[in-house]
Write a structure and sequence with these properties.
CATH topology of the largest domain: Ubiquitin-like (UB roll)
Pfam families: Fer2 (PF00111), Fer2_2 (PF01799)
Number of domains: 2
GO molecular function: 2 iron, 2 sulfur cluster binding; metal ion binding; oxidoreductase activity
Protein name: (2fe-2S)-binding domain-containing protein
Distance between the termini: 42 Å
Domain 2Fe-2S ferredoxin-type: 1-77
Keywords: 2Fe-2S, Iron, Iron-sulfur, Metal-binding, Oxidoreductase
Structural class: alpha+beta
Strand content: 5-15%
Number of strands: 5
Helix content: 25-40%
CATH superfamily of the largest domain: Beta-grasp domain
Shape: globular
Radius of gyration: 15 Å
Length: 154
Amino acid sequence: MPVELKVNGRSVAVDAAPNTLLVHALREHLRLTGTHVGCDTAQCGACTVHVDGKAVKSCNVLLAQVAGRSVTTIEGMAAADGTMHPMQAAFKECHGLQCGFCTPGMVMSAVDLCQRHPGANEAQIREQLEGNLCRCTGYHNIVKAVQQGAAAMK
C-alpha cells in the first residue's frame, strides 16, 4: 500500500508495508543512502532525520507514522544549487568527522539542537548530542563544528 509523504521538499509515494521502518523506506525504496543504519535500536543516532523539522531516529519510526508529514534527510540539507548547509560546512571546516559514518545523523541532530537551543554552550552541546555515537573522534571537533554551525545559522 503506498504511503504518501514529503521527502526533502518533494511529494513521494512509497509502496511498502506500513510497518516498514522509515530508515529502510528511505534507503531501500527512495535510495537516500545518506541516512545510515547503525544499530537498529535507536541507540547510535546514525539514522537521524528530521520529521516536520524535529530530529528523530528513523530506525524507531514506522513509515505509516510519517504519512502526510515532511521528512528531511541529509541529502535535503544542502541548498538547491548544491551549497552545503552551514552545519555541513562547519563539520567540514572543523574536521568534525573521521570515517563519516555518524556524520549525517550528527549533522541532523546538531541542526535540530541549534534551532531549539541557539545559544547552547559546550556542556549543553555535549549533553544534547549524547544520543549520537561516534566511534572515531573524541567529540572535540564535533562540538567545535556545532558551535561554528550555530553561529552561521543565526
